[in-house]
Amino acid sequence: MPATREPEADLSVLPKADGSARYSYAGYTVTGSVNGPIEAQRRDEHAYEAHVDVIVRPAAGVGGTRERHLETTLQSSLTQLILVKNFPRSLIQIVLQVESAPENDYVNTKLVQASLNFAIIPALLQTAVLALLSAAVPMRATATSAIVAVVSQDGASELVADPSPREVEAAQSVHVLAFTSQDELLLAESEGDFTVKEWDDVYDTAKRICCQSGATKGESIEMVLDEKGDNGPDMRQFLRSTLETKVVADLYWK
Amino acid sequence: MTTESLLVLPGDEIDPSLIPTHKKNPLRLGPGLRHVPPNHILPTVAGQLVADHRKTSLYVEYNGGRYIPSVSDLVIGQVTRSAADLYYVNLNPYTPNASLPHLAFEGATKKTRPQLAPGALVYARISLANRHMDPELECVSATTGKAEGLGPLTGGMIFDISLGLARRLLMARSREAGGIAVLELLGAEGLAFETAVGRNGKVWVGSENTKTVVLVGRALKETDEKGLDVEQQKKLVQKLIKQMR
């Protein structure tokens, strides 16, 4: 499973949903659908803002505690992105179906203990954002996300972007960060032992992956030349080119 | 007329040189944009930014998503039930009903009002829409008191189309500006039918002949799904007419 493979996405793949997207990167494939704004159930109804409902479905079996935790993490991030105040008393429903996760022979995928599946958060968030854009739900900004693992090798710690499941298992700490298109930190989840210095390094790496085209041109070119290998793809540019294809196809008549 | 256009994503900065200005007329913001006081204009959807310098207006052109009611849009709704003095009309699946007062029809009085059974279709204009209230409809012009083509739709059939196609069909010059000629072409082939286009992504097609209704609906849906241009629409119409005969 090559970690530096380019991300791929298709928009509006489901005919009946208001918006949908299929996204695959680093071995994960996720299909997301968005419906909204629709009528909220009485118990979800909020007098002044829309309720964002995120449902995560695993590749096999029914969702459990881990999926509920992923849902709450994503829900709080996406509520920040969507202009929820525009649609009081309504519901925006986001369903994320995991289609495939990276295969690995080393790590036992059936976890006995309820532990977090960090590596999937970027794929889920990315799919949700693409599906929301496809559904033309009014949003404050777009978002991009990255996962960085701190792996200790021969006493020195090293940062690995988009780690494989094996690397996640062996890592000292794993961090998921997401940034909005205005370079603001949207989500920061960490697991494991790490120092403040390490977190700062992780922050810089993740920001570079997420906000590359936002950085000054000369600087970003230099970085690409320097460390293309572990720098990962330019997520923001990827988002823009995906949307450009969709908009051009939608407005073919102009 | 449109002069500039470019791709925007939610939250993108808009180059101030693209924003039309005028000495007297204020800037008008169309769909897909929001004003963040004091002086930021930010897109809220992904689409093509269109600036109209003559009308000093700015909007984002996009296709897709769910219909969000806005005032003076023409829509096709389905009556779900009747209350004491109004009908509840559904514009969109899974959204709260819009209300259509019994007296909002041409020449309607308490005694002579159209009797609409649940399931009946109406072509109406949105008279009130805001985020805190359910939308309200009318089938009569408030200024002239005339129906102006609005009212119950009898017979025929409804076809679902994308919001973008509905907008193009409602353009004053849909062939030149919207690139949609399929209805004109079908009419030129000698088919007799009438249509009503709802901004909520619905087209009603009515005709004496059921075959014609299905053919017109199929032509519209195929144009929408395959994104046909005027030349391809001509070919499609010829193919469908040949099949029917």
UniProtKB/TrEMBL annotation, chain A:
CDD domains: RNase_PH_RRP46. It is found in: Nucleus. Residues 5-138 form the Exoribonuclease phosphorolytic domain. Its main location: nucleus. One of its GO terms (biological process) is nuclear mRNA surveillance. One of its GO terms (molecular function) is RNA binding. It holds the Pfam family RNase_PH. Keywords: Exosome, Nucleus, rRNA processing. InterPro entries: ExoRNase_PH_dom1, ExoRNase_PH_dom2_sf, PNPase/RNase_PH_dom_sf, Ribosomal_Su5_D2-typ_SF, RNase_PH. GO terms for cellular component: cytoplasmic exosome (RNase complex); nuclear exosome (RNase complex); nucleolus. Coiled coil: none annotated. Belongs to the RNase PH family. PANTHER family: EXOSOME COMPLEX COMPONENT, EXOSOME COMPLEX COMPONENT RRP46. This is Exoribonuclease phosphorolytic domain-containing protein. It comes from Cercophora newfieldiana.
TrEMBL record, chain B:
It comes from the Eukaryota. Keywords: Cytoplasm, Exosome, Nucleus, RNA-binding, rRNA processing. One of its GO terms (biological process) is U4 snRNA 3'-end processing. SUPFAM superfamilies: Eukaryotic type KH-domain (KH-domain type I), Nucleic acid-binding proteins. Gene3D superfamilies: 2.40.50.100, K Homology domain, type 1, Nucleic acid-binding proteins. Residues 156-210 form the K Homology domain. InterPro entries: Exosome_RNA_bind1/RRP40/RRP4, KH_dom_type_1, KH_dom_type_1_sf, NA-bd_OB-fold, RRP40_KH-I, Rrp40_N_euk, Rrp40_S1. Its main location: cytoplasm. It is found in: Cytoplasm; Nucleus, Nucleolus. This is Ribosomal RNA-processing protein 40. GO terms for cellular component: cytoplasmic exosome (RNase complex); nuclear exosome (RNase complex); nucleolus. Belongs to the RRP40 family. GO terms for molecular function: RNA binding. Residues 27-66 form the Exosome complex exonuclease Rrp40 N-terminal domain.
